[in-house]
Amino acid sequence: MSQMNRRQALQLLAALGAGGFVAGCGSDTKKNDIDTVEPVKIGLIAPQSGPGKFIGDELNNGFQLYLELNDKSLGGHPASLLVADEGNSAKSGQAAAEGLLKQGVLALTGVASSSTMLAIRDVVEQARVPLIGSNASPTSLQSVVYIWRTSYVLDEAGRALGRYLKDELGRSDRVAIILPEAAVGAEDVLRGFRQEFGESDPRIADPVTWTSNSPSPSKTAYVSDIDRALRRNPTVVFCFYSGTAAAAFVMQLRDAGFRGTIYAPGFLTEGPVLESIRPSGDALGIRTVLNYSADLNNAANRRFASAYRKKHNVSPTTYAMASYDAADVLDQAIRLAGPTPTPQQVNLGLGRIGQIDSPRGVWQFNQPRTPQQKWYLREVQRDGQVLSNVLVNELATLG
């Protein structure tokens, strides 16, 4: 074996092994000038219609914003973003991934749905093209080489809230847990919450109330289930809804007379959900946990959030932030791959990035290729005439 081949083999083993992550490289990689004009193509998988369209738009917005703020280049190469419609099913999501791979993309990103992520796992691994997923992150996605995630793992939101509420609630408090049946991620969130709160803690001993799982529920879809849960006189409700279903659930819970505090993963009030809830104050005081808050006071977020508001006239969401970060890590990994990057070299580069200076705060990839990051508690408050998720405090570092 030649010296060069031996060096390449050692790099490959280092990147794929347990000790393959070298911290501290991220801050210097952008400073290296690479004299090349070879363009690169990145494929974005995102829903462009239906209930997932908002998330798809945010994934697109975040990635495009990074390109606009960085001369439309990644790693010193002119970059183009090819967008494929994820659709509303795992089958359509898989077709989107396969179509982008046929176009010779250097890397993939996006993916809104966990069912899509699981469906394309083998496609991505066999193609040996890195996927930097910027939303979907099921706990069951394990032992992957080419799939990285800049969002979160679904059980972490439950873990962050469980750890917080265990100490925050009094001995006489009781938690009603209300979740949509068969919803992707609900079991992950519930498991994380119970593990941190304490499986045997009497404050969460009541049975879970499972509701229908419709992306567009009726005005009475949750009424009977909510009434059943409230018969136990809970002081706190812990739930897991997003989009149109989140707004419907909150309004029906308030109509049922519940005036206690609602706790949930941040999707309950993220993006346009707050605008969909009655302006009478139904959402005020809702507390959520998420890996991002648009009012975080750090230099990276001031740059990102200001540019996002200027372009879109709204505050950025965690979906846009994670896609922005996906572009950032690709920028660094492509630069590390050299003047003629291949997908495999970019994948090696992803393992060498180290810490990322992100709008969410500094984070880095852990061994399972997901973020080790901070989680934040937010509360819905009035910002003038507008409802907003306001940062309360930092809860935990997970991952």
From TrEMBL:
Signal peptide coordinates: 1-23
Domain Leucine-binding protein span(s) in chain numbering: 39-385
Entry keywords, A to Z: Signal
InterPro entries referenced in this protein's UniProt entry, alphabetically: BCAA_transport (IPR051010), Leu-bd (IPR028081), Peripla_BP_I (IPR028082)
Family membership: Belongs to the leucine-binding protein family.
PANTHER family: LEUCINE-SPECIFIC-BINDING PROTEIN, PERIPLASMIC BINDING PROTEIN OF ABC TRANSPORTER FOR NATURAL AMINO ACIDS
Protein's name in the database: Branched chain amino acid ABC transporter substrate-binding protein
